[in-house]
Specification:
Length: 275
């Protein structure tokens, strides 16, 4: 065991390494070289287990397999992650969904995408992405609540997301009918590279400001227009114009056609004779 002058880190390592699986204390005269060899072996075991796992490996499971405290497992994983980063490897060890996994370095994404293009799965539709976002930010949430937000029946989209493993039933509402409540799954966190839903970007970043909302409403508002085009007043009163205000009001008879003779005026003498 370490003496009283050792650092706290060394003390914690001794506490984890000086006991075997049955809790029996090992010899206290273990050399520093042997201790480093055992730590190196544990780290190699972590690498091997994480490498063959398809899903993130929880820290408590690693602690159970290596028979070491969870705090030491987390510390060794962090040391491995730092070493990979400093060595400039094309992969890294990251914390995801309460565990650790290997993934490619973020700066090498374009090359990985080219490799995966030929085996790309069908992408989610816009409706599916919208529904998934609603569930992620509002979980636990019922089918009726999703429908109230989207304005359409989300039953088919929810079944698709559930079949893909992104959402699942996580409980039932306490209200009447005990509606099924949906929430995201560890697979959803794994796909996004998140450790928990708390790591989702704040939704306020995606909500436009009041000025943008007002501009959108103004652009979508339909205002009826009435065509009230008339001849300018100056044209009606100008000399030489073909029509006057009397003609527009209908008080004056239209002029006769040029090809017809003018109508004869009534004979005043004939009218007097009849009388």
């Amino acid at each position: 065991m370490s003496d009283t002058n050792d650092e706290p880190l060394d003390t914690s390592l001794d506490m984890g390494l000086d006991a075997d699986a049955d809790g029996a204390a090992e010899p206290a005269d273990e050399s520093d070289g042997d201790r480093e060899d055992r730590i190196s072996e544990y780290k190699r075991a972590i690498e091997a287990i994480v490498l063959v796992s398809h899903d993130p490996v929880p820290f408590d499971l690693l602690a159970q397999l290596l028979e070491q405290p969870t705090v030491l497992i987390e510390q060794w994983c962090d040391e491995l992650s730092i070493r990979y980063r400093n060595d400039g490897n094309g992969f890294e060890l990251v914390r995801v969904a309460g565990g650790v996994r290997y993934q490619t370095a973020s700066d090498l994404t374009p090359y990985v995408e080219r490799f995966l293009m030929h085996d790309q799965r069908a992408r989610l539709s816009g409706a599916a992405l919208e529904t998934l976002a609603i569930v992620a930010y509002k979980q636990p949430i019922s089918r009726a609540q999703v429908a109230g937000i989207r304005g359409v029946d989300p039953d088919g989209v929810l079944r698709t997301l559930q079949a893909r493993g992104y959402i699942d039933e996580i409980g039932r509402d306490d209200g009447p009918g005990q509606a099924i409540l949906f929430g995201t799954t560890p697979s959803f966190l794994e796909r996004l590279g998140l450790e928990s839903v708390d790591d989702l970007p704040p939704i306020a970043e995606f909500i436009p400001g009041p000025d943008v909302v007002e501009a959108l409403e103004h652009g979508l508002r339909v205002t009826p227009t009435i065509d009230v085009t008339t001849a300018p007043v100056s044209d009606l009163s100008s000399p030489g114009s073909e029509s006057s205000s009397d003609e527009l009001s209908g008080d004056v008879e239209p002029a006769a056609d040029e090809g017809e003779p003018p109508a004869a005026a009534p004979d005043r003498d004939a009218g007097d004779a009849d009388e």
